[in-house]
Peptidase
Amino acid sequence: MFERFTKDARAVVRDAVEHAGTAGASSVDATHLLLALLDRKGSRASFALTALVADGDRESVRRDLEAARRRAGLSRADTDALAALGIDVPGIVARVEEAHGVGAMSGERKDGRRGGRPGFGRDAKEVLEETLRIALARRERNLGDEHILLALTARPGVPAEVLADHGVTHASLTRVLGEGGGGQACA
C-alpha cells in the first residue's frame, strides 16, 4: 500500500513515527498521525486545515490533543460516559498527575525515550486502511496526506473529535477538497 502514497503522505507517516518516538510512545497512534499532519505546509491537507480550522489556529488543536493524551486518550464522550457512572476522570487525572507527574496516564515515558522505533498501533493501522478505502472511493490512484486527514475524520476517536471541535469534519473536508476524481481542490 505504501507504494501508492505520495511524497506528502509518506512524510506524514514518517513524521508520525518521529512524534511517537519523541514522546516515548510504545506505538504510533492516530493522534501521532494528526500531529504530523498539523506540521505539514504546502500540501493538500495543509491547505484544507488552513481553510477550515477556526482562525487558522493549529496550536489550539495541538493543545486539545495534549489534553486528551493526559486523559489516557479518552475522548470527551468516553469521559462523559464514565461521569454518568460516577467516575470523575478529571479528578483521577489530577490525583495521578499529583503523585506521578503531568502526563503520567499517557503511557508514554517521561524522558521521551524508549528502546527501538515504535511500530504502528491498531488505530493507526485502521486509519491507514481507511485512507486507502477513501482514495479508492474518490477514484484517486495515489494516496495523499489529504486522504489521511479524511480518514481521521471518518472514524470515531480523539482526532475526529478534536478536529470537529475546530470545524474540521469529513463533510467540510470533502467540500474543501472536492468530491474526488480530479485531484483538484475546489474554491
In short: The CA atoms of residues 71 and 93 lie 6 Å apart. The longest helix spans residues 7-23.
